[in-house]
Amino acid sequence: MFDHLFMQTLILLLSLVTLVWSADKFVFGASSLARNFGISPMIIGLTIVAMGSSAPEMMIAATASLDGNPDIAVGNAIGSNITNIALVLGLTALFHPLSVSSSTIKREIPLILLITAIATYMLANNNFSFNEGLILIIGFVSYLAILLFVTLRRAKQNPIDDKMVLEAEKEVPDAVSKPRSFFWLIFGMILLPLSASFLVSSSVFIAKDFGISDLVISLTVIAVGTSLPELAASIMSIIKKEDDLALGNIIGSNIFNILAVLSLAGLISPGDIDQDAAARDAPYMLATTFLLFILCFSRSGKFRITRAKGLLLLAVFIGYQILLFSQLKA
Hints:
The chain is 82% helix and 2% strand. By secondary structure, it is mainly α.
């Protein structure tokens, strides 16, 4: 039995690494192919590259929902958002305080708070319906359309001076040949669902073996694992002195997690969800997002995440882990 558990744990870790790696290759292939067809790097940066960090969560949500485990999909979306703000942003700010000037980010901070409040309300009755999933996915399409429309309209009137947009544009990989682009695109499309399937099945096995719920393992192990790309991207951004992009990656990822990831649970496997997701985890996600809102908009008027604020966010993450596992013992 121990050997079987060890093997499933190894499969989970390998699947997680493969999932993240294949998502990166998928984004590379899609971005390169888009550039070959003459699409603006700015558009690619705001759509394909921005969505890339949420690709693992989206694939896990779809796979888990198709397998009849919507709690994994819901837990991964909630857990990733808490992890992105409390752990990823907390560690990033400890490493280097963030000074942000992007008007796009300043608009999206209130937006992510509103979206998170709506999602928390939807889950409050321990049920996530098809219509609620549909509302979120329509919101996702609308968000992308409005973001592109506003950015392109401003670009026509004046040169783009928003730091986050400029930094996102620079992150677009250089184009390679169309055959090579197609190869990485198809390779990623094949490997993403395969690795997600192995990850979900091994997670369910481990959860049952330790007597914990699918929800808890998705809130912890899977959420932290799928947030590693955001951590790597944020660290690289501050090394390059791209503070706006470091925070923008996290805000954008959280918006995608609710609108594009959480929605899949309702669209594919609507119905009842674990009551802890509604009563404990979604409110904690909302409270963590509200804390970010408060920390960003200081009385001095400066948009800055200091080391002290980063330490506070880390404390929020540690507190959440203690809450989860103390209730398991109870």
